[in-house]
Design goal:
DUF3791, DUF3791 domain-containing protein, mainly alpha, single chain
Length: 74
């Protein structure tokens, strides 16, 4: 499997996980991730993220969003 495919799978898993953890519809998560460039962030940090569990990566994404002034309340 190519790295690009692995990144896409990670992005998809994290969209689903965020939807479940934050109690928001998948469509809203996709919009938020695109608006805040979370998908690009995942791709950029994949080298580190692929060694961590999805929960730890989602925590990092939450901090990334907070750094952009976006608060997520689950």
């Amino acid at each position: 499997m190519s790295e690009k495919t692995e990144i896409t799978f990670m992005q998809t898993r994290l969209i689903r996980l965020a939807s479940e953890e934050w109690n928001l519809p998948v469509e809203q998560i996709i919009h938020l991730f695109k608006e805040a460039d979370v998908l690009g962030y995942i791709e950029k940090c994949y080298g580190i993220f692929h060694c961590e569990g999805d929960e730890a990566v989602l925590e990092d994404i939450t901090e990334f969003l907070q750094g952009k002034g976006i608060e997520i309340s689950a």
